[in-house]
Design goal:
Helices cover 10% and strands 71% of the residues. It has 174 residues and is mostly beta strands. The longest helix has 18 residues. It is elongated, with a radius of gyration of 20 Å. The two termini are 31 Å apart.
């Protein structure tokens, strides 16, 4: 019985500390992305986007962002994977709406394969500048209404700068 009382006391103290937070210490995002590649090709691809943000204080965080987009063009299956990280500035207000901006830097992996013809892939540099709006549904749950990013790619000496990524999904806040 004594162990149960100690356990419940510990859980109550821990949850009281969580209630006292004025901003989330970490956020996990997962959802859908639409990627428009606009340098002459005008390709629209669909895929997924996931991110983990650790908040240093009420307005500054560090984000790791990962995404994959896919499109089949004339029988060739293509994929674009990005892995980026960087600072995020957020209002993290007690209200319902939480706008944010970020600057993300990292890598990109492009792949293409065709049945019977083999496959090819290459890696490069990417950076993304953008932001979005989260709408709080519950203290630990929000909906990312929209995230819009300008995306720059530098692959094998070629720059691609007319790219846009749109994302939406859910956010878990701890």
């Amino acid at each position: 019985m004594k162990k149960i009382v100690v356990l419940f006391s510990f859980l109550f103290a821990l949850s009281a500390c969580m209630w006292a937070q004025d901003y989330p210490k970490a956020e996990i995002f997962g959802g859908y992305q639409f990627l428009h590649l606009g340098n002459g090709a005008d390709v629209n691809a669909n895929g997924w986007n996931a991110a983990l943000t650790g908040n240093v204080n009420k307005w500054l965080g560090v984000t790791g962002d990962f995404s994959g987009a896919y499109k089949t063009i004339s029988g060739v299956s293509t994929s674009v994977y990005s892995y980026t990280g960087g600072p995020t500035v957020s209002l993290n207000r007690e209200g319902v709406v939480n706008p944010f901006v970020h600057a993300l830097f990292g890598g990109v992996h492009l792949g293409a394969s065709a049945a019977g013809a083999g496959s090819a892939s290459t890696n490069g540099f990417t950076m993304m500048f953008g932001g979005g709006v989260d709408a709080k549904v519950a203290p630990a749950f929000a909906v990312r209404v929209a995230q819009v990013d300008w995306v720059y790619y530098r692959i094998s000496g070629t720059s691609e700068s007319k790219n846009v990524r749109l994302s939406t999904g859910i956010v878990l806040r701890f």
